[in-house]
C-alpha cells in the first residue's frame, strides 16, 4: 500500500499585488489551494502582525472573500497555506477607497473693504481629495480677469493651502487677503477624489465698498436744468440710498427709491444763459462715490445782434430808393431756434416796426433821399433779445439809383416809337392826299358851273367872264 502526499500550493488567477475596494465592500478573488494532506490557511495583517479571525474572511471552493472592509482594514496581508510538508504564502495590498466628503458647513459673511478674509474647508477620503475653489463660475486659480464696471483688475487670489490633519483627513484654507469690492460673491469649494459625488461647500461674501460714479445726462431750458441720473453699474454691493448733487454753493440730497434705475431731478429757478457745473455722487450705507461732473448752460433769449462796420457798409450799399435788403449776421440764438426778427426804424416822418421770419431782412416802402435809423432784435421761444445798436442808411434818388435796363427793353421801346412815327406820317400823308382830292373836285365843280353860266349869258358877259377866268388862271399858274 502506497500513500500520496504533496506540499501545499496557492495559485491566484485574478488577484493583483494591489487591490482596491470601496469602503463597506468585499474583496473577492479566485485562488486555488492544493496540497496533501489538505493544508490549513490563515490570513495575517502584516502591518499589525495580527492573524485575522475566520469570521472576517472565507476561503472556500476556490474563492477568497474578505469583508466588509473598514477604513482600518487598509494594509498588507499575507495568506498562508500549511500542511505537514511545509507552507506557501500569497501577499497582497488592500487599499480601502473612501468617497470624498466634507463636514464643513458654509456661511454668509459681510465685511468692509480692506478687511482680511479666510475660508476653511475640512475634507476626507482616499485617495486624497482635491479641493477646487470656484468664484463666479471660474476656477479661482485662473489668470486675472477684468471685473465689469470697474477700472481695477482683480488679481489672482492666493492659492489655497491643503494640510493633512490625520489619516485620510485634510483641510484647505483659502486666504483672500485684504478684500476689495469686486470680490463680493459666492465662493464654492468642491471636494472630490473621483469616487462618489463628493461635496461642495458654499460661502457668500459681501464686501461693503464705495460705489462707482453714476451716469448723468442733462438738458436745460431758460431757468431749469433736468438731470437724468442712472444707477451706477457698480453699487459697492449695497443699494444706492440717495444722490448728492452740488452746484455753485448749493448742496442737494435726493433720495433714490428702492429699485430705481433712472432718477429724474429738476432744478428750477436758475439764471438764464448761465453755465452750471453739477457734481453728482452716488451714496450707499458705506460711502459716497466720486463725482460725475456734468456741465451745461441754461438757455434764454437770443443774443444781441452785432453789426460790424462791414455789415453797416453793406446795408448802405444795398439801399435802393424805396427798399433795402440785407442778411443778419450770425449771432447766439440763446439755445433755441430763432423764430423771427423785429426791426424798429425811425424815418423823418415817424417810427415803425416790422417783423420778418427770415435772416434776410427786407425793409420796403421807403422814400427816396431819406435817412433812416434802425435797430434789430431776434426772438425765440423764450422771448425777444435786446435791440442792437442803431445803424443808419440813406436812400438814393430813384432816377440815379435805377439800374440800367436790359437792351431788349430799349429795342422794344425803339420799335414802338418808330411804329408811332410811321403811323403819324401815314395819317398826315393820307389827310394831305384827301385834301388834294377835295380841292380838285371843287375846282372841277366850279369850272362846270362857270361854263354853264357862260353859256347862258350873252356874248358880252361871256367875254368878260372869259377874261376874268383867264386872269384867275394866269394868277394861279404864276403861284
Question: Which secondary-structure class do the elements indicate?
Answer: alpha+beta
Radius of gyration: 64 Å
Main sheet: strands, sense, barrel: 8 strands, mixed
How many H/I helices?
4
> How would you describe the oligomerization state of the chains in this entry?
single chain
- DSSP summary, beta strand count: 33
Q: What is the approximate shape?
A: elongated
Classify the helix fraction into a percent range.
10-25%
Structural summary, described in words:
The protein is α+β, with helices and mostly antiparallel strands. Strands 2, 4, 5, 8, 9, 11, 16 and 17 form an eight-stranded mixed sheet that branches. The chain has a five-stranded mixed sheet with strand order 10-19-18-12-13, with no helix packed on it. A hairpin with a 6-residue loop joins strand 18 and strand 19. It is elongated. About 4% of the residues have low confidence.
List the helices and strands and how they pair.
Layout: E1 6-12, E2 18-22, E3 27-36, E4 40-45, E5 50-51, E6 57-60, E7 63-66, E8 75-83, E9 86-101, E10 108-112, E11 116-126, E12 130-135, E13 138-139, E14 145-146, E15 153-154, E16 161-166, E17 169-178, E18 185-192, E19 199-208, E20 215-220, E21 225-230, E22 242-247, E23 250-255, E24 262-267, E25 275-283, E26 292-297, H1 309-317, E27 324-327, E28 340-346, E29 352-356, E30 360-363, E31 371-380, E32 383-384, E33 391-394, H2 398-401, H3 407-456, H4 459-478
Parallel strand pairs: 2-9, 10-19
Antiparallel strand pairs: 1-3, 3-7, 4-5, 4-8, 6-7, 8-9, 9-11, 11-17, 12-13, 12-18, 14-15, 16-17, 18-19, 20-21, 21-24, 22-23, 22-25, 25-26, 27-30, 28-29, 28-31, 31-32, 31-33
Amino acid at each position: 500500500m502506497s500513500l500520496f502526499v504533496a506540499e501545499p500550493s496557492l495559485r491566484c488567477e485574478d488577484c493583483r499585488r494591489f487591490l482596491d475596494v470601496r469602503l463597506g465592500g468585499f474583496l473577492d478573488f479566485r485562488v486555488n489551494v492544493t496540497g496533501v494532506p489538505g493544508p490549513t490557511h490563515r490570513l495575517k495583517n502584516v502591518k499589525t502582525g495580527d492573524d485575522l479571525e475566520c469570521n472576517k474572511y472565507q476561503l472556500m471552493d476556490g474563492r477568497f472573500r474578505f469583508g466588509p472592509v473598514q477604513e482600518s482594514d487598509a494594509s498588507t496581508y499575507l495568506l498562508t497555506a500549511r500542511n505537514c510538508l511545509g507552507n506557501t504564502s500569497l501577499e497582497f495590498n488592500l487599499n480601502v477607497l473612501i468617497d470624498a466628503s466634507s463636514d464643513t458647513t458654509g456661511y454668509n459673511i459681510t465685511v468692509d473693504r480692506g478687511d482680511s478674509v479666510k475660508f476653511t474647508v475640512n475634507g476626507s477620503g482616499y485617495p486624497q481629495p482635491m479641493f477646487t475653489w470656484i468664484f463666479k463660475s471660474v476656477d479661482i486659480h485662473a489668470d486675472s480677469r477684468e471685473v465689469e464696471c470697474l477700472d481695477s483688475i482683480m488679481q489672482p487670489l492666493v492659492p489655497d493651502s491643503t494640510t493633512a490633519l490625520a489619516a485620510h483627513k485634510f483641510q484647505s484654507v483659502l486666504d483672500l487677503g485684504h478684500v476689495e469690492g469686486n470680490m463680493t460673491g459666492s465662493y464654492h469649494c468642491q471636494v472630490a477624489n473621483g469616487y462618489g459625488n463628493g461635496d461642495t461647500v458654499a460661502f457668500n461674501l459681501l464686501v461693503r465698498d464705495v460705489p462707482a460714479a453714476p451716469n448723468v445726462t442733462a438738458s436745460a431750458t431758460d431757468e431749469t436744468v433736468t438731470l437724468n441720473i442712472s444707477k451706477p453699474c457698480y453699487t459697492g454691493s449695497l443699494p444706492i440710498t440717495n444722490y448728492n448733487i452740488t452746484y455753485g454753493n448749493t448742496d442737494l440730497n435726493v433720495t433714490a427709491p428702492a429699485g430705481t434705475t433712472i432718477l429724474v431731478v429738476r432744478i428750477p429757478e436758475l439764471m438764464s444763459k448761465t453755465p452750471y457745473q453739477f457734481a453728482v455722487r452716488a451714496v450707499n450705507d458705506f460711502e459716497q462715490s466720486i463725482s460725475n461732473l456734468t456741465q451745461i448752460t441754461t438757455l434764454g433769449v437770443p443774443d444781441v445782434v452785432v453789426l460790424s462796420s462791414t455789415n453797416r457798409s453793406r446795408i448802405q450799399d444795398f439801399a435802393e430808393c424805396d427798399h433795402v435788403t440785407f442778411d443778419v449776421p450770425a449771432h447766439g440764438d440763446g439755445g433755441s431756434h430763432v423764430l423771427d426778427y423785429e426791426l424798429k426804424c425811425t424815418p423823418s416822418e415817424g417810427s415803425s416796426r416790422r417783423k420778418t421770419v427770415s435772416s434776410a431782412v427786407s425793409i420796403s416802402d421807403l422814400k427816396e433821399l431819406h435817412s433812416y435809423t434802425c435797430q434789430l432784435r431776434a426772438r425765440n421761444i423764450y422771448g425777444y433779445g435786446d435791440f442792437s445798436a442803431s445803424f443808419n442808411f440813406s436812400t438814393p434818388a430813384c432816377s440815379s439809383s435805377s439800374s440800367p435796363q436790359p437792351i431788349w427793353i430799349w429795342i422794344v421801346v425803339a420799335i414802338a416809337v418808330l411804329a408811332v412815327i410811321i403811323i403819324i406820317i401815314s395819317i398826315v400823308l393820307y389827310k394831305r392826299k384827301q385834301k388834294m382830292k377835295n380841292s380838285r373836285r371843287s375846282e372841277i365843280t366850279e369850272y362846270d358851273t362857270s361854263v354853264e353860266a357862260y353859256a347862258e349869258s350873252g356874248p358880252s358877259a361871256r367875254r368878260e367872264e372869259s377874261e376874268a377866268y383867264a386872269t384867275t388862271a394866269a394868277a394861279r399858274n404864276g403861284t
